[in-house]
Amino acid sequence: MMRLWKNRSGSGYPLAITIVLAILLLSCCIFEYFRLSIIAAEVRDATQSAIIAVATENYSLVYNGLRQSYSGGYTRSSNQWQESWTTGDIYNRISRDLGLVQEESSYVRKSSEHIEYSISQLKVNVINTPFAPTSPYSMQQFTAEAQIHLTVPLSFGWGHLPPMQANLTVQAVYRPRF
Question: What would the pLDDT profile of 88-113 be if each residue is shown by its tens digit?
Fold first, then answer.
């Protein structure tokens, strides 16, 4: 290697060009990885914020149990308790926070004419606490879960590489403090 480096006959140019191109390719891959990570974190945080809002919006619907930490979404209606909770409008919150535009069945973020990323297939699951659990140690808490599909086209590879696709799952638990 040192012999090639010390060679002054001009045959080192292809090696130097190869090294520079390899460094450029490696740095492009690293920057693309960081771009994908930042987008995924941004979407995950916005979804987390929206699902926390759903959990706290159910505050007025949650029946505060006598024991701590087992509150559930129940309302009393004609001598019996019925489940009562809402999933909220998570797509609206996420699109407002991230500046997304709805296109067909997905929400898209665009920069100029290019699609930066899109989200779709939102699934919201609210797990209500049992009204009178048999064991207070094995019960679940009032939980809101959201799963969303993220698609990010790669800016690397001139459109020949498939886009990054990931399912992001976030969860929020409501627990009364007082």
Answer: 788 888 888 888 888 888 999 988 88
Using the Cα atoms of residue 58, residue 63, residue 65 and residue 70 in order, give the sign of their dihedral.
negative
Residue 13 identity (one-letter amino acid): Y
Tokens read off for 34: 């960081």
Structure tokens at 85: 């909770």
101's tokens: 């535009």
**78: alpha, beta or left, given left = phi > 0 and alpha = psi -120 to 50?**
left
DSSP-assigned letters across all residues of 112-144 = TTEEEEEEEEEEEEEEPPPSS-S-TTSPPPEEE
Instruction: Extract the tokens encoding 125.
Output: 């699951």
Which tokens hold the place of 92?
Answer: 């609206």
Nearest to 15 by CA among 6, 28, 26: 6
Tell me the longest C-alpha to C-alpha distance in the chain.
Answer: 97
Strands, DSSP E only, in the chain? 62-63, 72-77, 80-83, 101-103, 106-111, 114-127, 142-152, 164-174
